[in-house]
Amino acid sequence: MISIFIKLKEEIIGYACIVTNEEGTQAKIGPIGILPQYEECGYGTEAMKLIEKEFPAVKEWFLDTILQETKLTHFYSKLGYKQTGKVESIQENMTIIFLKREWIDGCCI
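Structure for GNAT family N-acetyltransferase, as requested:
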């Protein structure tokens, strides 16, 4: 597992963890978070782009999020992540959905 701190100047404003398979062609991002006061400022989007750029061999990216957190589901959808169809009910009103984004020849599909 690789842990990354997301910094703005010298202040840590977020974090992410990345796990890749042995071949380095698949990776799972998570958890990932940005401090609330820095949300909706573009830092999360920029962090995701930089993370993906640091792992050019990865062709399949995976993550999961809470279905009921519409802000998060919209965020990942905007980045090209699609639901895999796998869901897990954690408790009442909390469902985890699994997302995937694929790259072929440098393009998200």
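Strands lie at 2-8, 11-20, 26-34, 60-66, 82-91, 94-104, 107-108.
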